[in-house]
Amino acid sequence: MVDVLIRTGSVAITGSDIHVYENGNRDVEGMTLGHDATGFIEEVGQCVHHLHVGDRVVVESALSCGICDLCKRGLYNMCGGLVYNGFLATHQVHPADLCHRLPDSISMEEGTLTQTLALGCQACFKGNITPTSSVLIIGSCPTAVAAAMCSTAIGCKQVVIASTMNSTLEMVQKDFKFETVFFDSNALFGEVLEAIYRKFREWPNCVINCAISAMTMNLAVMALQPCGVCVLSECESECASFNALDILMKNIRLIPSFRSTNM
Length: 263
Hints:
This protein is α/β, with parallel strands linked by helices. 32% of the residues lie in helices and 24% in strands. The model has no long low-confidence stretch (mean pLDDT 92).
């Protein structure tokens, strides 16, 4: 047996949970809610040696098949048979290798944010952020804040969060002390680009787009330095048209960061 029995500790309700609750149909009728969770180990399988009864753990909720080509290559986040274990129950049987022990210094509530932090970290790693990077993060969702925190931890030269959500940006400024740029969704591109340039005093060489839309994709392409990187992390719109010639002429790399793997 390679599973453990977990008593639920804390659960975070995310945007994907709300989306499933409001828009779910027969295609997701087997999916339960509460995907970001922590818990206490109450029983361990015979083949489990890295966890013990009483351990506090944070869990990866996505269950991959483990046998498809993508899983065998380590890309389990892209598994076509991916299903989710929800944790809005008192107990849950879960694969032991998807449970990670929490340090004593991290509370159960803080632990539920691990998945969000993983998404932000992966976006930064895919953007190859270094201490010489200037990073523009578009969007004000939790992943955007996590990416800003990770960029700062890496020691990047400057990080700025830009969004149309003024109230959220005010919270980000107050609680996290990040520089921000507010722009109206109907604003002219030139006005928004001017505000971004004033903040950086140059153009950024990395954009992490956590609100993908036609507006934000064009902003990213126009704002980036030549040979810059645009990491695509969170979608606001399924379809987003932008200037492909700018991509070619400036040799910009578009890199997707979907779900997280090995984070």
